[in-house]
Amino acid sequence: MGMFDPLKGFGVTFATMFKKVVTEQYPEDFYPSAPRWHGRHQLNRHPDGLEKCVGCELCAWACPADAIFVEGADNTEEERYSPGERYGFDYQINYLRCIGCGLCIEACPTRSLTMVNFYELADDDRRKLIYTKEDLMAPLLPGMEEPPHPMRLGENEQDYYVQGPELARGRGVPEGETVETSKEEAIQ
């Protein structure tokens, strides 16, 4: 330890004493976060308004803090919430436990769960920090229907037998025309 070490430490203090003070007016001036910063979770939707979550519970299994609870249920013909057989009936994320690691995002097979840039997650009531499915669901865009509604298949999701094997394989069948085939021809 040298004799001038305390003066070096005070040098940092004296250098900052004469700099201009920067005050952020946080609630009034809301600065956006970095584009790749991960904040609050969001459950995404398909373009027609159906939920992407199929209730597989992989995100809950991947969470090291045990902050996610998912309960799946079966879709019916009268009430359809997702394109598959199942949907996430009950979905909760406890932000008192969440460590923001993003392992749940990596585990999601349907890209239903993502993280947005919203970072204001503090609250003085513990019950408000348990986000439910309604809090996490992405808002409906204009033209979307509120689920449940009957499933409508897009052009790329139609049955193989309706499209025909040539169109399904990408051969030169004009758009809008289908080829009549039997199941035996389709198998070959």
Automatic annotation (TrEMBL):
[4Fe-4S] cluster 2 binds at residues 63, 98, 101, 104. It is found in: Cell membrane. One of its GO terms (cellular component) is plasma membrane. It is a peripheral membrane protein. Its cofactor is [4Fe-4S] cluster. GO terms for biological process: aerobic respiration. Keywords: 4Fe-4S, Cell membrane, Iron, Iron-sulfur, Membrane, Metal-binding, NAD, Oxidoreductase, Quinone, Repeat, Translocase, Ubiquinone. The keyword Iron applies. Its EC number is 7.1.1.-. [4Fe-4S] cluster 1 binds at residues 53, 56, 59, 108. Binds 2 [4Fe-4S] clusters per subunit. The keyword Iron-sulfur applies. Residues 43-73, 89-118 form the 4Fe-4S ferredoxin-type domain. It is an enzyme of class 7 (translocase). GO terms for molecular function: 4 iron, 4 sulfur cluster binding; iron ion binding; NADH dehydrogenase (quinone) (non-electrogenic) activity; quinone binding. Residues 145-188 are annotated as: Disordered. It catalyses: a quinone + NADH + 5 H(+)(in) = a quinol + NAD(+) + 4 H(+)(out). Residues 146-155, 168-188 have a biased composition (Basic and acidic residues). Belongs to the complex I 23 kDa subunit family. NDH-1 is composed of 14 different subunits. Subunits NuoA, H, J, K, L, M, N constitute the membrane sector of the complex. NDH-1 shuttles electrons from NADH, via FMN and iron-sulfur (Fe-S) centers, to quinones in the respiratory chain. The immediate electron acceptor for the enzyme in this species is believed to be ubiquinone. Couples the redox reaction to proton translocation (for every two electrons transferred, four hydrogen ions are translocated across the cytoplasmic membrane), and thus conserves the redox energy in a proton gradient. This is NADH-quinone oxidoreductase subunit I. It comes from Haloechinothrix halophila YIM 93223. The gene is nuoI.
